Task: structure prediction
Amino acid sequence: MTADPGLPQGEEKAEAVRGLFDTISPRYDLVNRVMTLRMDVGWRRRAIHALRLGPGSLVYDLACGTGDFCRELTAAGHRPVGFDFSFGMLENARTGAPLVQADALRLPVRDASADAVTCGFALRNVVSLDALFAELARVVRPGGRIALLETSRPDNPVLRAGHAVYFGKVVPLIGGLLSDRAAYAYLPRSMAYLPPPEELVAMLRGAGFDDARRLQLSGGLTQLLLGSRS
Ligand SMILES: C[S@@+](CC[C@H](N)C(=O)[O-])C[C@H]1O[C@@H](n2cnc3c(N)ncnc32)[C@H](O)[C@@H]1O
Result:
């Protein structure tokens, strides 16, 4: 799945990711807002809007981190439950939603129990996307929906070049100044874990989200994957 042989795999990757987020958790929100110029807030709202859920829907937010999606889901009138395996991120969460320390690949919930699942910027962090998508298909009820956000590379060559400089040089610099340089140098590298867009959509369709599709947000800086459980 990865083109970068220097990146960890399997359990080594899971341990590295958990440790990384435990380390950066105290200043995660600050760095995120600075790094994305607050665009991340709009991306999450867009994702929730695209779910077109009825009021009071039960939504599992996987890899919830410090609870940004949970806060927006609550504000939109839904009932979120957040799951993350980094205790540091959960400890620094600012949300009234219930939070559970758990691996997104093995959720402690019943089959078909969620009206929807959200997941923000964690696809490249999991050990197996196939396992994650199978877990989504298990926990979302028939007709329920998913909205997954992940970083992306713009198609436009000029934007793409600017994005490479920003993500590859500026992000580690900002992260280093405000938080942990090594961690924020890893984040751009971890893009190599992501399959190409068409493969991501095909994987979701294969997992049981027949109408899966992908939208590009902010000129392709971010991608939004949507689908309904067949
Ligand atoms: C980039 S942060 C995103 C946090 C939040 N979703 C957001 O939108 O800001 C990635 C999160 O994924 C979590 N994560 C990565 N792999 C995970 C797994 N297998 N199970 C649970 N959480 C995981 C990390 O602990 C971290 O909090």
Notes: The pocket of S-adenosylmethionine is lined by residues 17, 21, 63-65, 68-69, 84-86, 89, 103-105, 120-122, 125-126 (CB under 6 Å).
